[in-house]
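Lab notebook, bench 4. We co-purified these components, and the gel suggests they stay together. Before we commit to crystallization screens, I want a quick structural picture of the whole thing.
Request: model the full complex, all chains together.
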Amino acid sequence: MKEFNVIERFFAERGQARRDVELSVGDDCALVNPAEHKSIAISCDTLVENVHFLADMPAKALGYKSVAVNLSDLAAMGAEPAWMTLAITLPNIDEAWLDAFSQGLNDAAEYYGVALVGGDTTRGPKSITITINGQVPKGKALTRSGANNGDWIYVTGTLGDSALGLAILRGEQTLSGDAAQYLIQRHYYPTPRVLAGQSLRNLASSAIDLSDGLVSDIGHILKHSNVGATVDVDQLPLSAAMRESVEYEQALSYALTGGEDYELLFTVPESQRGALETSLAHAGVSFAKIGQISTGNKLRLMKEGATFKPINFSFEHFTS
Amino acid sequence: MKEFNVIERFFAERGQARRDVELSVGDDCALVNPAEHKSIAISCDTLVENVHFLADMPAKALGYKSVAVNLSDLAAMGAEPAWMTLAITLPNIDEAWLDAFSQGLNDAAEYYGVALVGGDTTRGPKSITITINGQVPKGKALTRSGANNGDWIYVTGTLGDSALGLAILRGEQTLSGDAAQYLIQRHYYPTPRVLAGQSLRNLASSAIDLSDGLVSDIGHILKHSNVGATVDVDQLPLSAAMRESVEYEQALSYALTGGEDYELLFTVPESQRGALETSLAHAGVSFAKIGQISTGNKLRLMKEGATFKPINFSFEHFTS
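Here is the predicted assembly.
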């Protein structure tokens, strides 16, 4: 099978269509027609086997997650997903694997309305690079640099589930049953907060998606916005599965440093707090207020009025 | 060194800036502002060591060529280069190698006015994926599907030089001196025909860039346009270096099947022939009329009125 045909047959022909795609896979370039008065948000992520995903990860989950992690970047900017390209490197053409992978990828693409418009297939150790384009009204994108002293800090969803799911898959936690299955699914099928991101556009002062863990990622907001933050760890949202599976201190550690949550962390000025909470409730997304932006450039983790130190303090995927 | 810092330090900070880039590397996404009334052309190419480039290819040439092959896709659509992302996989962080690679990449980006706006660095066998965006006035993009019976077939530049240069590098041709150096440079530093592509917009009926060899690539135009073609091989443009280095029949074989020329092949109706030749001459690009579109779906290679059969009939990079 020729390289070209893999993209066409498994992805483009089965994938989501969009009316603004004038020409899809099959020419030297794709042609798309952006909406007027919008900026284009562009993000690019590579997932490498044994670095970003386990070799035995189900193909369908990998296809889904490859799109989801890119969508999460668009969500953090408040952008609507539009178009993407897929560069996939495979050791061999395994049609059953490609069938399942493309099903997961196309499921995510269809659900979030993103069209695959180009790609390239090459032979080598398994890796996936997706470059995604979204659209956002000019001047309305959320960035990491707008947080101000006094703004409230929020996160969507629950934290740490993906990291605990990974620990189960790696045999570092011996858990089974429904809770374990839930946590593994959270690792395999993260939910990019695309609608939540869009609903934050006129309300949040800054936003970021949680890919490396809260402690690491909030650091980017502090640095880019030149502010500090206090987080009350007792306010961190934890799933029932997390709570029933590990001790509370361990759960807090996963929530603070676990990584791969793909939830949004964002800051909101006091004046927008009511509107924000109404808007997110309408979007059907759970959220929690976990702290407040301060002056200085430090992150302070607090628990019952005292400084809190989590068990682990770094997360670099699972290479370390 | 963190993955993120490689893109920022070696590429974004040193790279070409553009006024339509609102936010570059350093947030969840880049933000760019497309021009009004234009379509966006998107292309994605992966280059893998020992598949698409030799392991001892100079880093600077590899950086340049990685951009050039993507620019060539934009050229074939008549698009102006705008923004790109770079996903680079490296076995280790070699600063000297990255210095040279980024110099070549940034040279090409600067010359053709394309801004690097995002990327990702991962560890593994060396490979480079670039996704490039260009802009083209709505409805004016060149495609593979517009060729009509009677249209003239043209190519830019000279053909086969890159393939002969590669043969020299691989020791399959024992040549030396200025001609050999010229041919090797043509392999390392192809010239994407970006301005020529734009000047073809209202004149050519179809276009494609020559990456896999003329015989293979013209086939895409015949298929998408549902036409045939006759090419007079004596009209194929050959460089002086090619002519003096190998026998004429061998030269024709390189020109027809060699691959990696990154020249444009395009078709022009008789009514636009004069305007086309004036326009390309103004753009300072050499070009040659090599044949004519016909009915049927076959490519006929002719030499002095008889069918011509080249020595080799396939080109699949250098894996085979």
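Residues 313-320 of chain A have pLDDT under 50 and may be disordered. Worth comparing against the SEC data before the next meeting. Residues 152-307 of chain A form a domain with the Phosphoribosyl-aminoimidazole Synthetase; Chain A, domain 2 fold (CATH 3.90.650.10).
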